[in-house]
Design brief:
Layout: H1 19-30, H2 36-44, E1 65-66, E2 72-73, H3 76-86, E3 93-97, H4 103-110, E4 114-119, H5 122-134, E5 141-144, E6 157-166, H6 171-174, E7 177-189, E8 192-202, E9 205-213
């Protein structure tokens, strides 16, 4: 694994892969995203691998990128914010709803998590699986499934991430959180998508915290076999 440009007490230094990556990460830091573990993962996992080829020039900019099936790659600042709030750590079991390109999956895997990722669009799931295998991330469990029901999954999870907006978090997902676990996503409040953090503070109690408005695509229930 390559040496990182990030540490808790050292300044940033350019890597061999060029100034664009460094500038991309400095832009995120300038927005107040200072979680070193997240930034280090974003340094090591190239977003360009997960972006459609025609949008490769946008992969190191802080913008959403169109994907097939009407989906998008989430802007990196939101990805970093969500992962920072999630508190990803090595050994955690994480449930991801909405695999998309597989980029967020790769970041969490790079951070040492055991990721179970669910994608409702078959073509996106297949493409993400190929990308992840191509960079050696074979420990990921990726399923073509309805992530908002997640009825076929076994066990509970330390963390759950929703890569999109829901009207309300399904109770079935909250029941998948282990005690001390955390869910991060976005929920629509008065028509505006806002960041949501849910923490399980006991076996039967959860705490909800609403954050700022975010620009994300909706998460829909069901599976799309034709796509």
């Amino acid at each position: 694994m390559m040496d990182s440009a990030f540490s808790d007490d050292e300044p940033l230094e350019p890597l061999a892969d060029g100034a664009k990556t460094l500038q991309f990460l400095l832009t995120l830091r300038a927005q107040g995203l200072v979680d070193i573990a997240v930034l280090r993962a974003m340094e090591r996992v190239s977003r360009v691998i997960f972006a459609p080829a025609r949008y490769a020039d946008l992969s190191r900019t802080d913008v959403s990128i169109p994907l097939p099936c009407g989906q998008t790659m989430t802007p990196p600042n939101i990805v970093a914010s969500f992962l920072g709030s999630l508190g990803v750590a090595a050994g955690q079991r994480i449930l991801e709803i909405g695999t998309g390109s597989g980029y967020v999956t790769a970041l969490m895997t790079e951070m040492g998590a055991q990721v179970v990722s669910l994608e409702r669009f078959r073509s996106l799931a297949i493409a993400a699986h190929e990308r992840l295998m191509g960079i050696g991330m074979r420990a990921v469990e990726l399923q073509h499934a309805d992530g908002l029901s997640a009825t076929r999954l076994l066990g509970r999870f330390d963390r759950i991430i929703l890569n999109g907006v829901v009207e309300t978090v399904p109770e079935g997902l909250l029941q998948r959180l282990s005690p001390g676990g955390r869910l991060v996503g976005a929920v629509r409040v008065d028509g505006v998508p806002r960041k949501l953090i849910v923490s399980r503070v006991g076996e039967n109690a959860v705490d909800h915290h609403l954050g700022p408005a975010v620009r994300l695509t909706p998460l829909s229930p069901g599976v799309a076999d034709a796509l």
